[in-house]
Every structure is written in structure tokens, then in C-alpha cells.
Design a protein that fits this description.
Blueprint (H helix, E strand, L loop, with lengths): L23 E5 L2 H7 E6 L29 E2 L11 E2 L4 H24 L11 E2 L12 E5 L3 E5 L6 E4 L4 E11 L1 H15 L9 H7 L11 E6 L5 E11 L7 E2 L3 E8 L1 E6 L4 H6 L5 E5 L17 E5 L6 E10 L11
């Protein structure tokens, strides 16, 4: 497993930050362990919403006397791909809030969306990097064209490396500012939407925190991202898994894991700790984080190393990030001067 900054994470010995005190942590990367510990309880592929417009918002508890329910709301944001999976339990106030979260999520994933030609609500979005010292001559742009062609304009020599012999390109995408915590909340909204309603009573704090009615909440702050090398998802999807047992004599397991698939990306987050786990935790058991074996979705032709990158999504202020992506090409018109 390789981290975002290139450092090697040694499987189950790698630790991640958790907003929870006095807790030992272990990361488990054995793919069989995931299936042994977790079971699928809800999926966007089989999601069947109630067609009756709700009179009470599931997320903020406002009634139709306090808010309106006029907007068309989606289970999965269209920024990760066209889809027609609608929900009918989200009020217009929450819809506006969630749209704000999705703005940061969109920036976080934009390079892959454009590279893979994923069409959103209207079209494939164009990626525009942030400038250096507000100089427009330093901006990189990437656009998807007909025939799966890409139009890439690079004005800063340090942003690229091209090897014409191997037909490979390394591009540094300087993302515009975004707020990592809003990325997490955008994903959390998907997870809570998929949560069977009978579990809502154990996760009231998660709903309150999502809608800014509660300031603090214990949660695992990292998202884990796998990039497929040989497959691209034609439509986005999301699956919610639940721990078969949330604790043993020596270990504890986060109850819910959300897996979101789009483009060639598989994103995993752990939902915040519910009342069920809080009631049994004693601060002495080791918290085990099982990572989803995303490589199972790829077309494996030979033994390969599973690479999982992790991102700290606990930051509640605006940040910038440089994201390097390596890819190959078959044919290209290259008009970039040599370094």
C-alpha cells in the first residue's frame, strides 16, 4: 500500500488519525478479512425510495411548515456521474447545504472526472488549476473532447513530465482551494441516505453533525482511495456495509463503511461512531480498520500491488493540494517546449 506522499504503509501496522482518545488502532489490509467482518446492508444499485414526498426532513427534522421540499434531490451527487436515483426525504434547506459540501468534493476529484470523461449533470467538466501568484499564464487546463480525446494546456514547465519513448505523462494538477471536512460530509450524506431507517435512532448525532446542528463528533478522519488501472465505472454507485460484530474481547470495529465507485476511483470512509458502539466501548480494545479490497473490481491479468492512498478529511478550513497523476497515451499532438 502506498500513501499519497509516496511513503509506504506497511499493511496492518499503518495508523491513521482518529478523533477519539485512548484508543489503539490497527489497519487491516487483508481482503478476506473485510468480507469476514462486514456485510452489505444497502446499495444504490437496489435502492428503492418512497415515492411519497416526505413532510419531515430525514436529515434536519424540519417539517413542511418550517421548510419546503421543492428541489429534485439525488442519492448520489451528479458530479460523480449521471444518475437518476432520487430521494424524497431531503428538504430544500439541506439540499442547499449539501450542494455546498459537494463543491469541495467536486474539486477534490475533478482531475479524474475530466480525464475519464465522466459526464455530470450537463457535460464533462473542464479542469482548471489554480494559478501561481494570480498569474493566468501559470494556469493548466484540461478538457474532454469528442472521441475520448483530451485537450491539455500546460503553461508551467514544472507541472509536467513527458516520456515520448514510453508514451507516458506525469501531470501535476494544482487543485483550487477546497475544504476537506466538506468532502467528508458530502460522502457522509451518501452513507446516511443509504442507512436503513431503522438505524437512524442510533445515529442521531451523525445527522445533527451533518446538518451543523452539532459542532463536534468522533469520526475516523481519513478517506481511503483506490485507483483502478484497467476498468472505469460507466455509472456511479455506492454500497453501505455493516460490521457483523462491532466488538470482540480485544477488538472493536466501526459499524458502517461506505464505498463509493465512480470513474476509475473507489473511495472508502467510515461513518461516525454510533450510539451502539459508544455503549459498548471501554477504551481498552483495539479499533481495527478493515480496508475494502477495491482491486477485486479491476481486471487482474497478473500479480500486482494493491495501492491505496489516504487523505485527511478532518481539516475544516480551505486548503490547496497538488495532485500528480501518471497516465499513458497512444497518440498525441505535443506542442510543449522542452524543459
Amino acid at each position: 500500500m502506498t500513501t499519497e506522499n509516496g511513503k509506504t504503509a506497511k499493511g496492518s501496522n499503518q495508523k491513521t488519525e482518529i478523533k477519539r482518545t485512548n484508543t489503539n488502532k490497527k489497519m487491516q489490509t487483508d481482503p478476506l478479512e473485510f468480507w469476514n467482518k462486514y456485510e452489505l446492508i444497502s446499495s444504490s444499485k437496489t435502492y428503492v425510495p418512497s415515492r411519497i414526498k416526505s413532510k419531515v426532513c430525514r436529515y434536519c427534522d424540519r417539517t413542511d411548515k418550517e421548510t419546503t421540499f421543492n428541489q429534485i434531490t439525488h442519492l448520489l451527487p451528479e458530479l460523480i456521474g449521471e444518475n437518476d436515483i432520487l430521494t424524497f426525504d431531503e428538504c430544500d434547506i439541506c439540499n442547499k447545504l449539501f450542494s455546498d459540501y459537494e463543491s469541495s468534493f467536486s474539486i477534490f476529484i475533478r482531475p479524474y472526472i475530466t480525464l475519464l470523461g465522466v459526464k455530470g449533470k450537463k457535460k464533462v467538466p473542464i479542469f482548471q488549476s489554480r494559478t501561481v501568484d494570480r498569474n493566468e499564464k501559470t494556469r493548466t487546463t484540461l478538457a474532454h473532447r469528442e472521441g475520448n480525446q483530451k485537450e491539455l494546456h500546460i503553461q508551467t514547465l514544472d507541472d509536467y513530465t513527458i516520456n515520448t519513448d514510453t508514451k507516458t505523462v506525469d501531470i501535476v494538477f494544482r487543485k483550487p482551494p477546497f475544504i476537506p471536512l466538506k468532502v467528508y460530509k458530502s460522502l457522509l450524506k451518501i452513507g446516511l441516505s443509504l442507512l436503513p431507517t431503522e438505524f437512524d435512532k442510533f445515529n442521531k448525532e451523525s445527522f445533527a453533525w451533518l446538518t451543523n446542528r452539532q459542532d463536534d463528533l468522533s469520526f475516523i478522519t481519513h478517506a481511503f482511495v483506490s485507483t483502478l488501472k484497467r476498468r472505469c465505472f460507466t455509472t456511479p454507485s455506492a454500497d453501505l456495509y455493516k460490521a457483523k460484530n462491532i466488538f470482540t474481547d480485544k477488538q472493536e470495529f466501526p459499524e458502517y463503511i461506505l464505498i463509493v465507485c465512480f470513474a476509475n476511483q473507489i473511495v472508502q470512509i467510515f461513518l461516525p461512531f454510533s450510539d451502539e458502539l459508544k455503549d459498548v466501548t471501554n477504551g481498552k480494545r483495539q479499533l481495527v480498520l478493515n480496508l475494502f479490497p477495491g482491486v477485486a473490481y479491476d481486471k487482474i491479468e497478473e500479480p500486482q500491488t494493491l495501492e491505496i492512498k489516504y487523505f485527511n478529511l478532518s481539516i475544516g478550513t480551505s486548503i490547496t493540494e497538488n495532485h500528480k497523476i501518471s497516465f499513458s497515451y497512444e497518440d498525441a499532438v505535443i506542442n510543449i517546449p522542452p524543459k
